[in-house]
Amino acid sequence: MSIAAFEFATANRIVFAHGAISQVPGIASSMGSKALIVTGRNIDRAKPLTDALKIPFICYGVGEEPTVEIATEGLIKAKDFGCDLVIAFGGGSVIDTAKAIAAVFTNGGEFMDYMEVIGRGKTLSKPSLPFIAIPTTSGTGAEVTRNAVLCSKQHNQKVSLRSPYMLPNVAVIDPKLTISVPPHVTAATGLDALTQCLEVFTSNKSNPITDAIAKEGMARGAKSLKKCFDSGEDLDARSDMCICSLSGGLALANAKLGAVHGFAGVIGGMFPGASHGAVCAALLPHVIDVNVKALTSRDPESVYLKRYDEVAQILTGNFHARSTDGSEWISKLCFQLEIKSLREYGLTDAHVDDVVQKASGSSSMQGNPIKLTIDELTDVLKRAMS
How many whole angstroms separate alpha carbon 107 and alpha carbon 115? Predict the structure, then answer.
């Protein structure tokens, strides 16, 4: 197969080390004079950063999946304080909120001006405020992506703002910051990271660079996610999951995802209590099975059929594994990590048609290795609800 044209872009600088948080005060001082620190609901968890920072700052706590309203409130705080630097210290929701704030701060207007699908889709034409991303979970890889996902309550949907200008200036990954993450969060975020690596590898927009990165991420995630769930203080396993998350972010920022994330954005928008990573996990084995069936039926010579076999071999460690072995391995892992059915989040049969219709038009769905029919998408969703 010939190599299609591609480009690859990421954060200007990536710092990965045990104890890397100690480098942030010096980095921040070189980038700005007043910082907005976006963190989680418990602002005290950011003390490793705030106690050492040498420049004036204001904190903004994000206690839930980011919405347009939450980002707007943070933007107002940043403007009122006169910030010239944004620092995110937290999980994917925190980083996405901070990333969106940094972008709209310099570009002006409202968040809906720049949001895909449901917004006005304007181009972000100016660089964001200088931005440092410090993840404290291993999940979205948002510290190296060029988009931010926000939920619109008006539309009950999660969609992205997207631009190369949104890539963080510096990403600081310190595995020690993830040790205190509780098992259920470790499971959900880790499965999101693993899903992202898998979906990029089987995406119709993958390239040789994203392939290599995604495979490394899958291998580390498969080896260490269960270890982190069972023993959160296993620093080697936590380091592997940080690399899995980072790999997913690097890869997806330069390719596309697929049907899992096409559904997950819609479900997360309709049911705010649904954990993004857990939703992805509930969908993943069924998306694999339906994709493989569709490819076998309509495109039996597809390279993606071989890729799903390769995924299974990476996950199971068995060189002879086939795609069905991979989906079975994922289903078993989801059971071990106590992942719930989608019905547990409030999804019922009455929601199926609406979810499928919205998901079919999502941005992520365009990266799926084969265009799934409405009936096939419905099959995926109903399986994940069983």
Answer: 13
pLDDT tens digits along 262-285: 999 899 889 888 888 999 999 999
Q: How far is CA 105 from the centre of its chain?
A: 23
How far is Cα 105 from Cα 165, in angstroms, rounded to an integer? 12
Report d(CA 78, CA 35) in Å as an integer: 8
SS3 content of the chain, % helix, strand, coil (to 5): 55, 10, 35
Say which amino acid occupies 8.
F
3-class secondary structure, 247 = helix
Strand ranges of the sheet holding 57-62, from the earlier edge strand across to the other edge: 13-16, 170-173, 131-135, 85-90, 35-40, 57-62
CA atoms within 13 A on the CB side of 103: 30
Residue 106's alpha-carbon distances to 10, 79, 103, 257, in angstroms, are 20, 10, 6, 28
Predicted confidence (pLDDT) per residue in 237-259, tens digit: 999 999 999 999 999 999 999 99
Q: Where are the alpha helices (DSSP H) in 271-367?
A: 276-298, 303-316, 323-336, 352-360
Sign of the dihedral through C-alpha 88, 96, 215, 286: positive
User: Which of 95, 167, 98 is CA-nearest to residue 136?
Assistant: 95
Average pLDDT of the residues in 5-19: 93
- What is the DSSP-derived secondary structure letter of residue 73? H
Tell me the residue ranges of DSSP E strands in the chain.
Answer: 13-16, 35-40, 57-62, 85-90, 131-135, 147-152, 157-162, 170-173
CA–CA distance, 4 with 47 (Å, rounded to integer): 46
SS3 200: helix
Q: Which residues make beta-bridge pairs with 270? A: none
Q: Which two tokens stand for residue 46?
A: 């950011």
- What does R_g of the chain's alpha carbons equal in angstroms? 20
Residue 44: phi and psi, rounded to 5, are: -60, -25
Tokens representing 233 are: 């203080």
The predicted pLDDT at position 1 comes to 55
H-assigned helices in 82-129 = 92-107
Say how far apart CA 66 and CA 149 lie, in whole Å.
7
- The C-alpha angle with vertex 104 and arms to 102 and 107, in degrees rounded to 5, equals 115
Give the largest Cα separation in the chain, rounded. 61
